[in-house]
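Example record for the data management plan.
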Amino acid sequence: MGHLHTDMTVKGSGSAVKLKSMLIDTGATYITFTGAQSVIGVETLESVGMKLDPARSKLEFTRPKGMAYFFSGR
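Corresponding structural encoding:
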């Protein structure tokens, strides 16, 4: 399998940050050291109700839409 990158927007109370070309890495939990590449790990995916379908290289919902996330696939 190759690499899966996605654009995403992280929204909080009163603000939002657009992130471009984030690497989806289901083998990572949290990567937190100086100089690390920005990744979305399995802990983050699970916490927002998503999973990776490796056969299609697509992100999928694991909860009904509107439950703790808003995601718009490309």
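Summary line stored alongside the record: Residues 20 and 41 are 16 Å apart (CA to CA).
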